[in-house]
């Protein structure tokens, strides 16, 4: 019997995590499987050979795309050539549509019989719904993280499976030593501030969040962030004369959530991380006026918080753009500190919706689907 092979591509850190989990699940089901492709440190740690460093792709932010276009096209061609030489049984691409879909399109022309699976659906339910039809022409199977996503792709003839959200596979727990390690008084309530994971988000939201925190005199603020932003955030919190802690590890981020009474957070996946720990939250977001004007005319959703989107109702308060003011957030935070427990049952309901119907781990379900196509 020939050894089966899978070519796996991830182009950014979130994809690297998904890819590493998927590699474990694939090998558990098929120990002799040959896997290679493009990935980051987490995938490489799973004895995975990467064609070139994943960072070459994850540097491609909007602002820096233009100067890197020649290198990006060189990497696309290099990847396509490698896939054609390897002739894998299946090509699996993870998120990073700018790179992955170009590779898939080129590979389809050269290896028309190769099965291609894409993992993580583009958010066609939020904007540019035409991408669903385009994706159906590029890939053979789509794996989605959210339960309502298959309905957007199945009408275009694209076989789609909801596998569940990878957050469910993170081993998170409370940490009774958290307060002691950071010298936080046992009797002082803790509030988590999450101003975003991009510099522009932090610059817009953190000063507003600080104004909110300043009105609660007996509160300790914790700001989980990436190491690259720790110094800037520390300076801002210090100038605001807040009692604060800045953390930079995933373990401490979740420990802060479990220790806190409430969270103020930028819109994004972090709302699901907060829901996972049952921490009541307020979602706030501000973007440049031009970006907001464009988004308002392009985006087609009632809610921005994933908890609200999953439940199709407003459970988590959302304050966006002109409504994202310190005064509005102060009033809502006062309410949350007193009545936040009312959110908790709904947060559990939202998390339950992220589990696939079979009750399998998302990576295990994804691996089953992929190997079923081999």
Short description:
The protein is of the alpha/beta class and 374 residues long.
- Count of DSSP H/I helices: 17
- Protein structure class: alpha/beta
End-to-end separation: 13 Å
How helix-rich are the residues, as a percent range? 40-55%
Seen as an oligomer or otherwise, the chain set is: single chain
Uncertain segments of ≥5 residues (pLDDT<50)? 60-64
Order of helices and strands: EHEHEHHEHEHEHEHEHEHEHEHEHHEHHH
Characterize the largest beta sheet: strand count, sense, and whether it forms a barrel: 7 strands, parallel
Radius of gyration: 22 Å
- Order of strands side by side in the largest beta sheet? 3-2-1-4-5-6-7
Give the overall silhouette.
elongated
β-strand amount: 15-25%
Mean pLDDT over all positions? 91
Number of strands: 13
Walkthrough of the structure:
This protein has 374 residues and is of the alpha/beta class. 47% of the residues lie in helices and 16% in strands. The protein has 17 helices and 13 strands. It has helices spanning 13-29, 41-44, 55-58, 65-86, 97-110, 131-138, 150-153, 178-181, 199-214, 230-239, 250-259, 270-277, 289-298, 306-311, 326-339, 341-352, 362-373, and strands at residues 5-10, 34-38, 49-50, 90-94, 115-119, 141-144, 159-162, 190-194, 220-224, 244-247, 262-266, 281-285, 318-320. The strands form two sheets. The protein has a seven-stranded parallel sheet, with helices on both faces. A six-stranded parallel sheet has the order 10-9-8-11-12-13, with helices on both faces.
List the helices and strands and how they pair.
Layout: E1 5-10, H1 13-29, E2 34-38, H2 41-44, E3 49-50, H3 55-58, H4 65-86, E4 90-94, H5 97-110, E5 115-119, H6 131-138, E6 141-144, H7 150-153, E7 159-162, H8 178-181, E8 190-194, H9 199-214, E9 220-224, H10 230-239, E10 244-247, H11 250-259, E11 262-266, H12 270-277, E12 281-285, H13 289-298, H14 306-311, E13 318-320, H15 326-339, H16 341-352, H17 362-373
Parallel strand pairs: 1-2, 1-4, 2-3, 4-5, 5-6, 6-7, 8-9, 8-11, 9-10, 11-12, 12-13
Helix pairs in contact: 1-17, 4-5, 9-15
């Amino acid at each position: 019997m020939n050894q089966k092979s899978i070519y796996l591509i991830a182009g950014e850190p979130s994809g690297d995590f998904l890819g590493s989990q998927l590699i474990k699940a694939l090998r558990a089901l098929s120990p002799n499987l040959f896997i290679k492709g493009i990935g980051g440190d987490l995938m490489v740690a799973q004895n995975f050979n990467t064609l070139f460093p994943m960072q070459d792709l994850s540097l491609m932010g909007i602002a820096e795309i233009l100067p890197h276009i020649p290198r990006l096209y060189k990497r696309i061609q290099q990847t396509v050539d490698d896939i054609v030489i390897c002739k894998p049984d299946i090509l699996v691409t993870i998120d990073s549509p700018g790179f992955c879909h170009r590779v898939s399109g080129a590979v389809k022309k050269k290896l028309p019989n190769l099965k291609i699976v894409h993992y993580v659906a583009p958010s066609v339910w939020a904007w540019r719904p035409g991408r669903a039809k385009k994706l159906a022409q590029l890939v053979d199977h789509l794996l989605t993280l959210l339960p309502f996503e298959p309905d957007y792709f199945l009408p275009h003839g694209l076989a789609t499976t909801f596998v569940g959200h990878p957050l469910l596979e993170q081993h998170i727990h409370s940490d009774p030593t958290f307060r002691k390690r950071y010298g936080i008084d046992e009797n002082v309530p803790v509030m988590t501030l999450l101003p975003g994971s991009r510099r522009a988000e932090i610059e817009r939201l953190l000063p507003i969040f600080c104004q909110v925190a300043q009105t609660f005199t007996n509160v300790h603020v914790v700001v989980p962030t990436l190491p690259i932003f720790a110094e800037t955030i520390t300076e801002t919190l210090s100038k605001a004369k807040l009692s604060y802690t800045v953390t930079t590890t995933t373990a401490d981020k979740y420990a802060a959530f479990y220790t806190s009474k409430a969270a103020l957070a930028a819109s994004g996946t972090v709302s699901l991380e907060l829901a996972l720990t049952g921490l009541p939250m307020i979602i706030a977001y501000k973007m440049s006026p031009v970006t907001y004007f464009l988004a308002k005319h392009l985006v087609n959703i009632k809610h921005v918080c994933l908890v609200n989107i999953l439940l199709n109702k407003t459970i988590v308060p959302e304050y966006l753009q002109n409504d994202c003011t310190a005064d509005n957030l102060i009033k809502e935070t006062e309410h949350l500190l007193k009545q936040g427990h009312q959110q908790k049952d709904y947060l559990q309901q939202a998390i339950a919706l992220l589990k696939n119907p079979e009750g399998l781990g998302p990576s295990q379900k994804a691996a089953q689907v992929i190997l079923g196509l081999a």
